[in-house]
Amino acid sequence: MSLWSRLFGSSSASQGPEPTEHDGFLIYPEPVREGTKWRIAARIEKAMGDEIRRHDMVRADLLDSQDEAVEATLRKARQMIDEQGAGIFH
């Protein structure tokens, strides 16, 4: 990574996380760093009519690496969608 990319960020990093689609919902993993651990967190979105509905999921779980947190985030978000469907937006 070049000095300029480290100082000002690269264009690909500034675009945010790539979403994962599950059952018509988009899951954006957004783990939160807390000290040396990572908290499970995601933004879940679904287009409903002309509107995009959004749910911010944050869990108490802390994991050792960002990669582990992303994997666990996707697993928990899929479980929430499977159990609650569009009810997560109420």
TrEMBL record:
<protein>
    <submittedName>
        <fullName>Uncharacterized protein</fullName>
    </submittedName>
</protein>
<dbReference type="InterPro" id="IPR018772">
    <property type="entry name" value="Transcription_activator_HlyU"/>
</dbReference>
<feature type="compositionally biased region" description="Polar residues">
    <location>
        <begin position="8"/>
        <end position="17"/>
    </location>
</feature>
<feature type="region of interest" description="Disordered">
    <location>
        <begin position="1"/>
        <end position="26"/>
    </location>
</feature>
<dbReference type="Pfam" id="PF10115">
    <property type="entry name" value="HlyU"/>
</dbReference>
